[in-house]
Every structure is written in structure tokens, then in C-alpha cells.
Design brief:
584 residues, alpha+beta, 5-stranded antiparallel β-sheet, elongated
């Protein structure tokens, strides 16, 4: 996450445009480290959320209204007393620090005009919201920081406010080449690290981006750069800073397979390629709200599914070990036919033995080659032959038993892998309910007590519309795969599935029409995306009309057999088709 000085500069510019001259109408403190301002400006009502959470410091405009506690906290009451009807005069950012300062004008108890400053520090675990007098004296803060907590700076009422400089960093907005050469060129660390360690407000991802724009290997040691390379790096850096100073921001989120992985206020060319997708926003607040809403959904689902994942993973590991042992034991039975031949040869040539021999050399009439048969000197030829036949019969029985066991173990592994893939596909908590039911049905989770009702199933398959107007359905789990293939689909509908790996059943409803090539490609892309191979560049897809797909006898839900299918190679991609059911 690149919540750096550049993003703060973008936010400051946005806040400046929308808030300067505006009047504060309401102040609420929904959480202990969070404020919600309602501001009226230019006949428009705006809500500004400010969070000093150590794990998620944020500031952005939002349409959502979060209720506050019945009794407002002391910090909120203080703000209401002083600036409850104040007017925002200025919104500024000192240098490229991760700080936003609000200068607010208000009337005191005597009706005189006064000014106060609300300072928002967005510095990770050191984030804070500090309320000061015009001269910098701290009135209060949302988090009190005493000398016992920090030896660098106290944040307490009565203390003077200052920006802590715990490291010697340069202001990147006006750094000269000479200073740049001394600060960056003499640092024995990778170039990309030197940029964000030595310059204020530069994040690791922006350090990587600057190196990428300058065509310099970011992993090279900075003190190994030549004079020409340093000069080129400085020029590239200053071009970027000019965009920041002039407000040429392009807020964007970088997605990998629908998951937001990064955001920035300037283009991240270092993250371009087939693996990533970029979505641009006209407003940084909209970007932040979208990013964290998406991130929270994914995080919440992962937290909710962690117990199910652990159960599936534990069962998979146990079955992997069991399968490997069974295969090893099965391999040991491959020599069973040799013992049968030895017994038959001893019955044929045993009359040549006198007794007490350690081996018998004879011709193997099956292969027409000479063989040496080891013998037990204490046994007769017939007894040695019987011993080999006993070994053969024992290994034969073992082979037959292991053949069935390995098939069962293989089926169980495939079933568990399909459940694991379904957990990866799940987007909502409702999607986990059916997966849990399946784990109960097959004994991986303790069954529900007789008095407990079965939960209502509200999860539905994904529903897409192809470019040519064909409805496409995608199962989220084995139960939905079973329902789509054997209840929803009719005989002439087309069925798609990733070849040889767990994945969703994809059904294209034909409604009596011929499918164009583009629809085949789009359905194949969906089958590739909703499979275990979704992170691969290419996935082989089997497709066939539904009437040729049969349920596997005794198989788990969603497991099928088919023959004479067609195949294609598809790239996992959701962009080719339109989501038809927005409530998916």
C-alpha cells in the first residue's frame, strides 16, 4: 500500500478544492481513534472521515454516515466547543510529509475571531489527530503520547507541536542535484531503498517506480551508480516531483485477479503486464473508499474461511502422505510375477537339484534367457517353489487391495482439492455455508446436533452475459456445479471445465441457437479463471455439450465423466464478459 507523501499531496489538493471556505456543521467520533466531520460548502454537504488507527490510518470523503456513541468522548466535545461552527480557511501539507494541516477560523466565547489548527498525522502506528492553538500549543489530541511512550516527542495538552525528524531525510520537492548525489549516491544500499529511506514521503513502491522510469536496476547499490546514471535518476525524479507540485495526479488501483494489491496517485508502470489490471479514478477519496472496501471484503472472507481452510489443508496433507506410501507399496508388488515364474521354473527343472544348492541356473522359457533362482538350502525344490508361489500370492493380494485403496485416496484428494478451490473462489460469507455443509456431509467436520437447524442457503452461482447475449453460469462449489450441470443445463447447452485440475462447471445456455466463436472463448476464459489454474497464463479447457456429460458413479457432488470432448487453451480473464446478476 502506497499511502505516502505523494498520495497525501493528492488528498491535500482534493481537500483544498472542496473544503476551503466551508463551514463545519457536525463533529462525531464514531471510534476512539476516528473522527467524522460534516462540512457545508458551496451548497454541498460533505462528510470527511479521518482515522488515526495504527493499523489503518485514513482520510477521505465518504457518503456513509457512521453513528457515534451516546456520550461523546472528551476530544470530540473539545472540538465541538471550539470549532463546531468554524470555517476552514486553509488545507496544507508541510513539504511532502504524511501530514495534513487544517487552519480553522471560529468565534470564541467573547465573539472574537480566533484561529485553531487541526493536524492529521498519517504515519502508521504513530498516526494521530492533534488540535492546536494558532501559536502551535497543543490543546489536546486523539492519542496522548507521554515521555514514557516516546522519547522523541510528547503529544500532551500544553506542549508545543513540532514535526518529529527521527531520520535525516531531505525534502524531495526542491532537492538539488548536489544534495541528491551526496544523499543517494553515497548510500551503500539498493537504489530503490535509498530513495525512500533518504527522501521524505517516498514509499517503497514509488522507489521501485522511479528506478523503473529511469531504467536503472533498483537492486543495484546506490553508491555504485555512475555520475551519468545519478544525473539521469535525479532528472527522472524531479520530473515526477513536478507532477506532484503541479497536481498532475492520476489516482489508480492495481488489481491482480480482482484483488486490489496496490494504489497510487501517479501511474505505476513497474506493475504493468498481463498479471495486473489498472483502474483509474477521478477522485482520490473514491479510490481510497473503493480500495479499502474491496480489501476489507477479501480480508473478512479469508478470516471467516481460515478454519475451513485449515480442516481441508490438514486432510489434504494426510491424504498426500497416505497416497505416497500406497504408491511406494504398490511399486513393491511389481516383482510379484517374478516369484510366480521362479516357482514354475523350479517345478520344471527341480529334478536336477541334488539338495543343499544355493541357487538354480536354468533357462527361462518365457524370455529364452538364463536366470539364477536363489534357493533356501534347508528346503527341497518343491518346497522352494511353494515358497515363491506364497510370495506371489501375497503380493498379488496386496496389489489388488492397494489398487482399490489408491483409487479411493486419489478420489478423496481430488474432492478436497475441489473444496480448496471453492474456498479460493468464495467472495461472500454466504458462499462458505455450502462448503461447510459439504465438509459435514463427508465427515471432515462434526455433524450438526439433531436440534440445530440446517442454515438457509442463499449463495447463488455466478451469472454472466456473453458479448453475443448468451447467459453463462459458473458454480462456486461442488453442490452448485452439480445443480448447474444436472438440473439447470439442458442437453444441447455447452459445458466447460479446466482440464485435469479442480475448477467450476461453466454452463452456456444456448436456447436452441448456435454459439459463436466469441462465446466459446469467453466461457473458456471463465472456466480458466474459476479453477486452480487461475494464476497461470494459459489453462487447457475441455468443453462438450451437456448431454455427453455423465455423473461419476459413487463420486462426490460435481464429479463427472465424459468422452469425445473438444479442447481449447484459454487465459483466465473476467473482462471479456459482463456480470449479469449484480447480486452474485
Amino acid at each position: 500500500m502506497a499511502f505516502d507523501g505523494i498520495v497525501i499531496a493528492n488528498l491535500t489538493r482534493d481537500l483544498k478544492t472542496k473544503l476551503e471556505g466551508g463551514k463545519i456543521n457536525k463533529i462525531a467520533q464514531p471510534e476512539k481513534d476516528e473522527l467524522l466531520f460534516t462540512i457545508k460548502n458551496n451548497r454541498e454537504t460533505l462528510r470527511l472521515l479521518i482515522s488515526a488507527s495504527a493499523s489503518l490510518p485514513l482520510i477521505y470523503f465518504t457518503e456513509a454516515n457512521k453513528p457515534g456513541p451516546l456520550t461523546a468522548p472528551n476530544f470530540c466535545m473539545l472540538l465541538r466547543k471550539h470549532i463546531g461552527s468554524g470555517r476552514i480557511l486553509k488545507v496544507t501539507q508541510p513539504g511532502l510529509e504524511r501530514i495534513i494541516e487544517f487552519e480553522i477560523e471560529h468565534l470564541d466565547e467573547l465573539g472574537d475571531i480566533c484561529r485553531k489548527c487541526l493536524i492529521v498525522e498519517l504515519m502508521g502506528k504513530h498516526s494521530n489527530i492533534i488540535f492546536c492553538k494558532e501559536d502551535g500549543t497543543i490543546l489536546d489530541s486523539i492519542k496522548h503520547v507521554s515521555a514514557q511512550i516516546s522519547s522523541v516527542r510528547e503529544v500532551l495538552p500544553g506542549r508545543s507541536y513540532f514535526i518529529p525528524h527521527t531520520t535525516d531525510k531531505e525534502n524531495p520537492l526542491d532537492i538539488s542535484f548536489e544534495t541528491f548525489r551526496q544523499v543517494i549516491g553515497c548510500t551503500p544500499t539498493p537504489v530503490q531503498k535509498a530513495l525512500y529511506v533518504k527522501l521524505t514521503g517516498i514509499s517503497p513502491i514509488m522507489g521501485t517506480e522511479i528506478c523503473h522510469l529511469a531504467s536503472i536496476d533498483g537492486e543495484r547499490s546506490a553508491n555504485e551508480l555512475t555520475e551519468a546514471e545519478l544525473l539521469h535518476l535525479h532528472h527522472t525524479f524531479m520530473f515526477l516531483m513536478e507532477d506532484v507540485k503541479e497536481g498532475h495526479f492520476i489516482p489508480q488501483i492495481i488489481y491482480r485477479r480482482e484483488e486490489p494489491v496496490e494504489f497510487a496517485s501517479l501511474p505505476l508502470t513497474c506493475m504493468e503486464g498481463n498479471e495486473y489490471e489498472t483502474r483509474e479514478f477521478s477522485d482520490i477519496s473514491q479510490l481510497l473508499e473503493t480500495y479499502y472496501a474491496s480489501k476489507n471484503v477479501i480480508t473478512r472472507i479469508r478470516q471467516k474461511s481460515v478454519d475451513l481452510r485449515k480442516i481441508v489443508q490438514t486432510a489434504l496433507e494426510r491424504n498426500y502422505k497416505k497416497y505416497d506410501l500406497q504408491i511406494k507399496q504398490l511399486k513393491d508388488t511389481e516383482k510379484r510375477d517374478k516369484y510366480k515364474v521362479y516357482g514354475e521354473l523350479l517345478n520344471t527343472y527341480g529334478y536336477e537339484l541334488q539338495g543343499g544348492e544355493k541357487e538354480l541356473k536354468c533357462l527361462n522359457y518365457y524370455t529364452n534367457e538364463k536366470v539364477k533362482i536363489p534357493l533356501d538350502t534347508q528346503l527341497t525344490a518343491r518346497e522352494n517353489a511353494q515358497k515363491f508361489f506364497d510370495k506371489y500370492n501375497k503380493l498379488k493380494r496386496t496389489y489388488e487391495a492397494l489398487t482399490d485403496l489408491t483409487k479411493e485416496t486419489s478420489k478423496e484428494i481430488q474432492h478436497l482439492e475441489s473444496i480448496s478451490t471453492a474456498l479460493d473462489i468464495a467472495l461472500k460469507e454466504d458462499d462458505l455455508v455450502q462448503i461447510k455443509e459439504e465438509l459435514m456431509e463427508y465427515g471432515y467436520i462434526r455433524r450438526r446436533a439433531p436440534g440445530n437447524k440446517k442454515p438457509k442457503i442463499t449463495s447463488r452461482p455466478f451469472h454472466y452475459l456473453s458479448s453475443d447475449g448468451f447467459h453463462i453460469y459458473v458454480g462456486k462449489n461442488n453442490y452448485q456445479n452439480e445443480e448447474l450441470t444436472f438440473k439447470l443445463a439442458s442437453g444441447n447447452d455447452w459445458w466447460f471445465h479446466a482440464k485435469g485440475i479442480p475448477g467450476s462447471h461453466v454452463i452456456v445456455k444456448t436456447e436452441g441457437r448456435e454459439l459463436p466463436d466469441r462465446t466459446f472463448e469467453e466461457a473458456g476464459a471463465l472456466a480458466a479463471y474459476y479453477s486452480k489454474g487461475r494464476n497461470s497464463d494459459k489453462v487447457e479447457i475441455d468443453y462438450i455439450q451437456k448431454k455427453h456429460v455423465k455423473k461419476a458413479a459413487g463420486g462426490a457432488p460435481g464429479f463427472v465423466i465424459y468422452h469425445t470432448n473438444y479442447s481449447m487453451v484459454s487465459s483466465p480473464n473476467l473482462e471479456l464478459v459482463e456480470v449479469f446478476d449484480k447480486g452474485r
